[in-house]
Specification:
By secondary structure, the chain is an alpha+beta fold. It contains 11 helices and 6 strands. It folds into 2 domains: about 110 residues, no CATH class; about 100 residues, Roll (Chitinase A, domain 3). It has a 4-stranded antiparallel sheet with strand order 3-2-5-4, sandwiched between helices. A two-stranded antiparallel ribbon has the order 1-6. Helix 1 packs across helix 2, helix 4 crosses helix 6 and helix 7 packs across helix 11. It is elongated. The two termini are about 30 Å apart.
Amino acid sequence: MLQLTEAQALAYLGLKIADARYGKQLNELEGKELQEVMAQAERQYRLEEKVLAAPESQQVHLPEATLEDAWLRIRGRYETEQEFEQALALVQLTPKSYRLALSRELRIEAVLEKVASRAEPVSDEAVARFYHQYPDKFTIPEKRRTRHLLITVDENRADAGELLVLQQMEAIRARLLKRPELFSELTLRHSQCPTAVEGGQLGLVTKGLLFEALDQALFEMQAGDISPPLRSPLGYHILYCEAIIPAENTSLEQARPKILEYLQDKQRQQLQKRWMLQL
């Protein structure tokens, strides 16, 4: 039976680590990057060998269908079999050795999943304790339904360009103060932002999403207010705060499923780490 060699396993791990750390193919790395990737691959390989040698590994069965599904998903990233084989050949792998390395990886994942399954269920008390310990995590921030109108400044005209835009914006604002319902129409006519086709809609905006000057002004406005012209790196804006949706707290019952999932995942990961430290 064909066996996976250490060199092939390291090449497989190197492929995955190079992509995760640098977004590159292993054969594209050189110098320090290559050294770091292969050093990490070596450490990971040694730990994985301990996982595979543990008694739990003997209790794991990897269905052929699971391997085949993973294999087809990877193979599907390449247009042709030849392209796939050429990519593997660059790191001294073949389709057969790659499949063996993939099988090894899936077996390791199955072992770790088996270990994690021993985690104790998360209690209702733990969920409630987490909810009250971190209230900020369960606050839905205030939102403001906002529209804007943008006119850019011709930098080639220096101060004259700024003045012309400001004059135009003040004239537009004067009309809007009298008839706010014209905001969509005037935005479509004058705004130089792509949102003009939607009446300048920015949707529901939370604090911190806009340029600083715009953000500060918007969250000092009342519902129905129209701002004075506001400068940003893009030009001058007029903001229309259509409505304010107050901040609200998510109840414990609403938050329970997400807290439970988070605590369960954390508990499983901690159990896996403790188990691996004992290998």
